[in-house]
Amino acid sequence: MANNVNSLVSETKKVKEPLFHISRKTNTSLKTKIIIKVGVILGLFLIFGLVTTLIAKDFTKFGSFFETLILKTFRNANSFRSTLYDFALLFGASICIYPAFKMKYWNLGVAGQVLIGAIGAFAVLNYGANVIPDVILVILMLLAALVCSVIWAVIPAIFKAYFNTNESLFTLMMNYIAIVLVTLFVKLWHNNVSGSIDPIEFGFGNWVTSNRYSLYTIITIAILIIAVIVSIYIKKSKHGYEISVIGGSKNTARYIGINVKKVIIRTLALSGLIAGFIAFAIVLVNRSLSTQFADTGYGFTGILTLWCGGGNPILTGLFSYLYVFSNNGLASVAGNLHISSYISQIYLSILFLFLIGCEFFLNYNVVFRKKNVEEKTETSNEVVVEKEPASSEETPKADDKKIKKTTSKKTTKKTNSLKTNKKGGK
Fold it and tell me: What is the pTM of this model?
């Protein structure tokens, strides 16, 4: 019985080692990351230039590719300011996502939050233009945008905090609701075929028309200031500390006394404030209402630039400018060289696909299993079974056979010795 138990316990089972596993790198310096990413960007733009000349079937267009790419942004001060405005909207969307993502709350509803804020700002403009003073009108537009965006951002946060709903799906679906609401109000206020509202004329609006590029600069500076304030707030304040703890582990946050529900709602209120300012800026520049922000895709592109920047606001700003610069420049290249506009979108997708790959391989190692160690044996814990001495009543059969054999041998030896003694006596 004991032998059978030992044989069952000592059995080994073969377990296949996985083909590869991923481990995190800790020794890659920031300087190395910057050099590699800059090299990838420059190398890809060289390849894009060569491919474009092959498509155009004219190798003299290689220089025109880079000339058009750069001059789209740096042709004059106005084109540069226009690029800065697009950069400000995208960078603002990234900063809007930043606090929630640091808390591991996947806020995909920035576009909807901006659209709802735009509805609030334009409602004030629509009913208050040329009725109340321009200064008060602009302040009320800002307040309405902030309140509407905060409410729209806090709704999914409440459901997440109290009912643990999936925030990704919740915020994503609210984007579509916001688009429908914008379309509804456009038809309600100005029912026209274009699907957007004509710019409303008022005193400050006339100044905006004649000083549009100056307003672009003001909005860019304002969003940069907001980014600095938010990054300092997240790193230095108690709220920022609570966000980082919840991002690490909600159970740990509860254990040390953090009210997780309140922090989630407060963090999304902060994101809503940033989205509200972006909505106010869009309405102030255009003096109309449309689904412009949702059409640009900046709500989702902000996630891309934030991820490429590794959650660092400075790097996120650089990648946001790279996206806007590349998007505008490549679209201009496609138009000037008379090639399909889809080519520019393909180039942009390839560029950021490689940047995402760089971010992954700079932070993680992919370790493949060795050829000579394809299988390893996993032995179960050994169980020591002590043999109890057999009682007089219960003796193993094997021991009985051994005893019988030894006794038979002894009796044969005794009989043989008696025979020899008898022969000797005779």
Answer: 0.81
